[in-house]
Amino acid sequence: MFLHRSEGMKIRELRLGDLEPERFIERKVEEIKSIVGRASALNALSGGVDSSTVTILGHRALGDRLKTYFIDNGLMREGEPERVVSIFENLGVRVELVQAKEHFFSVLKGIRDPEEKREAITQAFYGDIFSRIVRESGIQYLLQGTNYTDIEETVAGIKRQHNVLDQLGIDTKERYGYRVIEPLVELRKPAVREIAKALGLPEGIYSRPPFPGPALAARIIGEVTPDKVETVRKATQIVEEELSGMDAFQFLAVLHEDRVTGVREGRRDYGQQIEVRCWDSTDAKTASPTRLPHEILDRLAGRITEEVPGIVSVTYNITKKPPSTMEAI
Ligand code: XMP
After folding, report:
1. pLDDT value for 6
2. In which band, very low, low, confident or very high, does the pLDDT at 8 lie, cut at 50, 70 and 90?
3. Dist. CA 200–CA 202, nearest whole Å
4. Measured between alpha carbons, how far is residue 293 from residues 77, 237, 255 in Å?
5. Angle, CA of 158, 162 and 167, to the nearest 5°
6. What are phi and psi of 281, to 5 degrees?
7. pLDDT value at position 20?
C-alpha cells in the first residue's frame, strides 16, 4: 500500500519562522488560478483548520467556480455538519451537504484492521463520493488541505493518512477522474493556523484542535458500527467539554473493543471501556500526555460512566508519541 516509500519526501517544509502569510496567500491564489484556468474545482470542507483554509484560498482564487461540499460520512462529531455549514454561510461560502452515512457504514462493515479501515475510507471519499460528484458535474480538480505532517507519516509508513494520494504514486486523474491540488503541503499545523488567521477565518476555526479525516472511525478499535460511533461520539463530546480549557494540542476519546466486568447498583455489568487521550505537542510529530489534574480525571470518569450508556471503565493514556501515535488507529 505504501507505494513510493523508498523515494522519501519530495516536498520541502516551509517553517513557521520563514512564513510570510500574505506572500504565501498571494502565491497560492495565483497557483490555483493558473492550474485551474477556466475550469472548475471542488473541495470537501470538514470544518478543521486545513480544509477551512483551503476553502477560503480556493474561493479567493476561483470564486463561484469552486464548489464546496461537506460530506456527512456519519462519523463526525455531534452537530458538526450543521455547525460547519452555518459558519461558512456566515462567511459568504455556500456549502452543499452530501449525505453519505449509509455508504460509509456499508464499506466499513466487517473491517477490523486499522490500515484496511483507513484504506476503505480513502476509497469511499475519493473513489466513490468525489468521483460521482465529478462525473455528474464535469468538475476537473479537487482542492484539498493535505499538510506536511500527513505526507511525512504516510511516506514513512507509520499511518496511511486518508488524504495522501500523489505522494503514494496514485495518479488521481487516471484512477478517479480528477486532479488534486494541495496548497498546504509545505506547512505544518502551526503555519496553517497562521494562514487561516491571515485569511480572516474566525478564532473558533483557526485555533481549533485537529480532528482526523477518518473522523470517529480513527477512535474505534475493531469494526466500526453505528452503535459504536454513537458511543464514542457521546464520550468525545464530554472530553471536549471538559478539556477544551486545558490549552492542550488535542484531546480525544477512544472506544475499546474488550469488555470488562463492572458493577452497577450492586449487579454485575459487563461493559465497554473508553480511553481518554490528551496531548501536548507543537507539530503532531512527537507528543506527550498532558499532566491533567486529578480532579479533572475524576470528573471525566464520573461523567463518561454516568452519561454514556454501556461504559463501565475509563482510562487515561500516559504514553508519549513515539511509541504511541495520537489517534488510536
Ligand atoms: P497520529 O495519530 O498519526 O496523528 O499521531 C497525528 C495528527 O494527525 C491527525 N490525523 C489525521 N489527519 N487524516 C488527517 O487529516 C488522517 O488520516 C489522520 N490521521 C491522524 C491526528 O488527529 C493528529 O492531529
Report:
1. 37
2. low
3. 6
4. 26, 19, 22
5. 70
6. -165, 160
7. 98
Region of poorest pLDDT, from 7-16, 23-32, 148-157, 196-205: 7-16
What is the distance between the alpha carbons of residues 123 and 129, in angstroms, rounded to a whole number?
A: 9
Residues with CB under 6 A from ligand 1: 150, 153, 159, 161-163, 210, 212-214, 218, 250, 284, 321, 325-327
**Which ligand 1 atom sits closest to the C-alpha of 50?**
15
CATH 3.30.300.10 segments of the chain: 220-316
pLDDT 10s digits, 229-253: 999 999 999 999 999 999 999 999 9
pLDDT confidence tier of residue 160, bands split at 50, 70 and 90:
confident
Q: What is the pLDDT of residues 208-226, one digit of tens each?
A: 999 998 999 999 999 999 9
CA 74 to centroid of ligand 1, rounded, Å: 18
In words, the CATH class of domain 220-316 is alpha beta
pTM, two decimals, is 0.91
**Region(s) of the chain under CATH 3.40.50.620:** 2-206
Q: Which three cell numbers stand for residue 82?
A: 450543521
Query: Distances from the Cα of 148 to the Cαs of 93, 176, 199, 245, in angstroms?
Result: 26, 23, 20, 27
Instruction: Ligand 1 pocket test: pick from 150, 208, 236, 240 the residue with the most ligand atoms within 8 Å of its Cβ.
Output: 150
Mutate to test the pocket of ligand 1, among 53, 75, 154, 161 (most ligand atoms within 8 A of CB): 161
Q: Which CATH number fits domain 2-206: 3.30.460.80, 3.40.50.2000, 3.40.50.620, 3.40.50.1820?
A: 3.40.50.620
- Contact residues for 160 (Cβ-Cβ < 8 A; gap 6+): 1, 2, 115, 118, 119, 122, 154
Distance 193 CA to ligand 1 centre (A): 16
